Amino acid sequence: MNEYVYHGDKLTDPKYKKQPCKAVRKNGKCIRGKNSNMLVEFTGGDKVVIMARTLRKIRNQN
After folding, report:
1. Cβ 12 vs Cβ 62: under 8 Å
2. pTM for this one?
3. What is the pLDDT of residues 2-23, one digit of tens each?
């Protein structure tokens, strides 16, 4: 599962900044828009469309 940290920008709702999230998948692929937006789900269950460039992938801690 792809896990990310959402960094956000100055217009971002403060409850989402620096929060972990997971990519929402359909048929095994991440749901992406033509303008590089991405659908993600936060730990509270909120599904939000955000700019993909503001995401940072969490590396495995192995």
Report:
1. no
2. 0.83
3. 799 999 989 999 999 999 999 9
